[in-house]
Amino acid sequence: MSTPHNKAEKGEIAKTVLMPGDPLRAQFIAENYLEDVVCFNTVRNMLGYTGTYQGKKVSVMGHGMGMPSIGIYSYELYEQYDVEEIIRIGSAGALADDVDVMDIVIAMGASTNSNYASQYKLPGILAPIADYSLLRKAVAIAEEMKYPVKVGNVLSSDTFYTDDKTFNDAWKKMHVLAIEMEAAALYYNAARLGKKALCILTISDHLYTHKELSSKERQTGFRQMMEIALKTAIS
Ligand code: HPA
User: Fold this and answer.
1) Which of 70, 205, 208 to mutate to test the pocket of ligand 1 (most atoms within 8 A of CB)?
2) Which of 83, 112, 190, 228 is in Cβ range 3.0-4.6 Å of 197 for a Cys bridge?
3) How wide is the angle at C-alpha 218 spanned by C-alphas 214 and 223, nearest 5°?
């Protein structure tokens, strides 16, 4: 059994999958955090690995950029590979004044300008939200480790380079914390399929103060986010 995008056999993927956007980050996590690692996918270089973390089976796979991409990979993991939980780990640009670079933002909800949900023919708008059990665990772990964590609404945008220069202002006015490009599709898929999803983000840049992370800060932020995600995955 395989899909056009994933050559894994059923059983090769753990019930919980961590998903960074960049497949080389998936490789980095597998090589540096997991034991007894097996690579299950190389199709389109969207690397996927299964290993163990503190004795528990965990998988990690890239999801690419944007909602169509994460939409495909997460749907297949949930639907064809019986995955129960997906934790996206990514970066985001901050909008809110009280969110700073290096902060970790956990997406309780994912607002969006995407048309992804039109496929469900809902007679209204379904709010794409995180799984509460994963959210609660991740926040508790982050607070216990004294990592700078904020929880709230993020925007999953279809555009990185948005033509309308007032675009960010409108979302900032609604107290959306940060912008990224994938959480909403992941949360919609989880809602449709009765599965669990969470999105944990490190703030790489601030869209109003224009502060950016140095490469050293990027590493630290990434490490903190990874630790939260892995501990959430096994708890
Ligand atoms: N927009 C969308 N995604 C992002 C950004 C941004 O400004 N920064 C990091 N990921």
Assistant:
1) 205
2) 190
3) 150
Ligand 1: nearest atom to the Cα of 180: 3
Main-chain phi, psi angles of 145, to 5 degrees:
-85, 0
- Nearest-angstrom CA–CA distance, 225 and 228: 5
* HEC string for 42-73: CHHHCCEEEEEECCEEEEEECCCCCHHHHHHH
Residues 6+ apart with CB under 8 A from 115: none
Look at residue 185 and tell me whether its pLDDT is greater than 90. Answer: yes
3-class DSSP state for residue 195? coil
* C-alpha dist (Å) from residue 63 to 73, 125, 168, 181, 234: 6, 25, 25, 11, 21
pLDDT digits (tens, 9 = 90+) for 213-235: 888 888 888 999 999 999 999 99
Q: 215 φ, ψ to 5°? A: -65, -30
Ligand 1 mutation target, pool 157, 162, 200, 201, most atoms within 8 A of CB: 157
Nearest CA to ligand 1 atom 2: 180
pLDDT in tens, 57-106: 999 999 999 999 999 999 999 999 999 999 999 999 999 999 999 999 99
93 CB near ligand 1 (under 6 Å): yes
